[in-house]
């Protein structure tokens, strides 16, 4: 008997079977034997191989390709499953961390034009497949596929580390890391190969394409976690499974955890559909994609859709997993339509009276510090706002004074000079004013076209040569032009370009929020967390941190898993903190949809105290992760690369900045008057949809350091 009954899966697309399934089965079995994959019965033997039926998997997931292509794709899946089982047997069971890393590093050599002689079936298979796959594909595709393959292999170490220290991830960490180790981005690259259509380079990095790929990845992995729980958790001692993650995080039984995991799977599929039908047409029009380019994107989307439905059918038939009792074929129940990700996400009634939200316990291990120039910065940022015209609409001086944004900046960078602190405070004022300005101008009218035009113009006030030729037409443009001139001058040309791109990523994310308001759509939890970092300015966190004077951290350290995980954890902690304090302001007074408490209420269909408790638990989990990375993972990384004292000091300084940042933001939320009910009731304007929160907080600290 299994550990739980399989839940009611959302299967909105009928699976189709490739007519070349039998020839793929015969071919791939011979190929596996030739590569030596059937030589060790402790890993695979013929009967088990036949029962896993990878020919059926690929015939279902790639129903339209010809026989030669299906053979190639099936061989790739045989290789990746063998790699997974071989790694389990040789390294996970033995906990051989050093041997595992050496094994993975050597596999990278087989994704080149001049590979070494293979020493095991995984190397032999990868060398053969690489030579059969990359000819005829573009350099961009090859680069993406190499990266996906590398991450798939290297992230197996993440699973091994979790087994080694007995650690179960928090839900946010798990979703992000599972995308890499689970291999779905790798599968998405093979979808392009199988359908014979590459996503055009000029839109490959766009939000719609990114969301299609990521929702595909999440749904594939969540489905696999449900089917593989018994094998992975009960038989192999695996800790990287979403059902287990939910069990541990919520303290619920396995059946309930499986149902919640399936709800998230359903929600991610709805986001895939929503993106296909509402964001792709806009992308086609804005980028003026030619007919053949549009066709390539749609073939890719349909290929991902086929993989979803076909993958489900295979899971129901393969002996690799528990699969009794589930449904096959097309299946859509009322809960799939009405529940998480469906109509429930469009049913929120704005401007409900919710009252003050009792806050959960907020764990803060860092102490906010003070900057001696706070008094002068307070007055200076009020003068800046008046000069830029902030008080002609939306704000007045008294309201701005009550927000006390200089207090936030002073705690974020307690060591900044007066000039640096004023610049940081002005950036906070600009970002927060934008939070209030956009709803007034574009939110109530739902003027999406005007908002996009407004957003495009902002780049004109951040010229790389520092020569602004555009004439500011509103306080936002006037303020940005002033800040850019004061901020970008000491930066290198490369630094300016990176900074501007990060600002643009933040302002473009505001359009996503406006689009959701037009559709009255509460975001999916995963989409919300990841987009909230952009609306909060987290991309600028990394961009500006690299520009801080005296900072000498190489790119490979900035891009390492510990560094990115630590930064994301700090960002999520601060974003959710803001959502707790601003709940009444946003839900009752602004009709907001972008708040983590509301997202939890909607997804779990729970009451407000439970939703706030869940947000508090996520914050605590992200803080624990931040501390663990800072105290264990980062030092281990620095030891591995034999970092010198200067690099260690620079990394320690960055870790300290993030601690200052989180502590300062918490103190500011507790002491400012932006979220007081009396302030909210005295407001003379009706904000609407942006939810930018403290979008400028992290910008301010690092810009202050640049100025200093």
Automatic annotation (TrEMBL):
Its EC number is 4.2.3.-. Transmembrane segments: none annotated. Keywords: Lyase, Magnesium, Metal-binding. The keyword Metal-binding applies. InterPro entries: Isoprenoid_synthase_dom_sf (IPR008949), Terpene_cyclase-like_2 (IPR034686). Gene3D superfamilies: Farnesyl Diphosphate Synthase. Its cofactor is Mg(2+). It holds the Pfam family Terpene_syn_C_2. Belongs to the terpene synthase family. This is Terpene synthase. It comes from Nonomuraea mangrovi.
């Amino acid at each position: 008997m299994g550990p739980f009954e399989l839940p009611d899966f959302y299967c909105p697309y009928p699976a189709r079977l490739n007519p070349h399934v039998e020839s793929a089965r015969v071919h791939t079995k011979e190929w596996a034997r030739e590569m030596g994959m059937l030589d060790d019965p402790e890993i695979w033997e013929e009967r088990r191989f036949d029962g896993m039926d990878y020919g059926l998997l690929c015939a279902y997931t790639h129903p339209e390709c010809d026989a030669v292509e299906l053979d190639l794709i099936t061989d790739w899946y045989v290789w990746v499953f063998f790699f997974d089982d071989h790694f389990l047997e040789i390294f996970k069971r033995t906990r051989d961390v050093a041997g595992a890393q050496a094994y993975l590093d050597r596999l990278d050599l087989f994704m080149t034009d001049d590979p070494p002689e293979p020493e095991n079936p995984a190397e032999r298979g990868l060398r053969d497949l690489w030579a059969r796959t990359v000819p005829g594909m573009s350099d961009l595709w090859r680069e993406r596929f190499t990266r996906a393959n590398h991450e798939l292999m290297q992230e197996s170490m993440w699973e091994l580390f979790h087994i080694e220290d007995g650690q179960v991830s928090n839900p946010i960490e798990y979703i992000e890391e599972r995308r890499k180790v689970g291999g779905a981005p790798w599968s998405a690259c093979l979808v392009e190969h199988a359908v014979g259509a590459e996503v055009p380079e000029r839109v490959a990095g766009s939000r719609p394409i990114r969301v299609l790929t990521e929702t595909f990845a999440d749904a594939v992995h969540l489905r696999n976690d449900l089917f593989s729980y018994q094998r992975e958790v009960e038989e192999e001692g695996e800790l990287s499974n979403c059902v287990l993650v939910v069990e541990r995080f919520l303290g619920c039984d396995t059946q309930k955890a499986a149902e919640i995991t399936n709800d998230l799977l359903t929600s991610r599929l709805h986001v895939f559909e929503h993106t296909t039908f509402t964001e792709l047409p806009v992308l086609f029009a804005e980028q003026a994609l030619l007919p053949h380019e549009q066709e390539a994107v749609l073939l890719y989307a349909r290929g991902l859709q086929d993989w979803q439905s076909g993958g489900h059918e295979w899971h129901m038939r393969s002996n690799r997993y528990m699969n009794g009792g589930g449904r096959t074929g097309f299946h859509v129940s009322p809960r799939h339509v009405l529940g998480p990700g469906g109509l429930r996400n469009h049913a929120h009634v704005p401007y409900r009276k919710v009252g003050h939200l009792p806050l959960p316990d907020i764990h803060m291990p860092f102490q906010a510090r003070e900057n001696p120039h706070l008094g002068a910065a307070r007055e200076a940022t009020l003068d800046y706002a008046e000069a830029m015209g902030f008080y002609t609409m939306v704000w007045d001086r008294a309201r701005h004074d009550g927000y006390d944004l200089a207090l936030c900046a002073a705690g974020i960078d307690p060591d900044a000079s007066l000039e640096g602190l004023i610049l940081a405070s002005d950036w906070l004022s600009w970002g927060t004013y934008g939070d209030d300005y956009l709803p007034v101008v574009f939110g109530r009218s739902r003027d999406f076209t005007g908002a996009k035009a407004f957003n495009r113009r902002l780049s004109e006030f951040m010229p790389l040569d520092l020569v602004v030729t555009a004439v500011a037409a509103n306080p936002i443009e006037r303020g940005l032009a002033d800040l850019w001139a004061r901020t970008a001058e000491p930066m290198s040309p490369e630094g300016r370009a990176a900074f501007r791109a990060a600002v643009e990523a933040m302002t473009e994310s505001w359009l996503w929020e406006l689009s959701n308001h037009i559709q009255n759509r509460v975001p999916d939890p995963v989409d919300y967390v990841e987009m909230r970092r952009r609306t909060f300015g987290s991309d600028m966190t990394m961009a500006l941190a690299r520009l801080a004077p005296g900072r000498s951290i190489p790119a490979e350290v900035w891009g390492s898993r510990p560094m990115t995980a630590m930064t994301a954890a700090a960002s999520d902690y601060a974003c959710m903190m803001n959502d707790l304090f601003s709940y009444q302001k946003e839900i009752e007074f602004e009709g907001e949809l972008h708040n983590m408490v509301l997202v939890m209420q909607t997804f779990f269909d729970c009451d407000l105290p439970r939703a706030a408790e869940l947000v508090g638990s996520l914050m605590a989990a992200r803080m624990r992760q931040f501390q663990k990375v800072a105290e264990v993972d980062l030092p281990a990384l620095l030891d591995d690369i034999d970092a010198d004292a200067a690099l260690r000091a620079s990394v320690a300084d960055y870790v300290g900045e993030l601690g200052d940042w989180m502590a300062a933001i918490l103190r500011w939320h507790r002491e400012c008057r932006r979220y007081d009910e009396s302030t909210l009731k005295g407001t003379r304007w009706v904000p609407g949809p942006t939810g930018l929160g403290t979008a400028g907080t992290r910008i301010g600290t690092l810009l202050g350091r640049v100025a200093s």
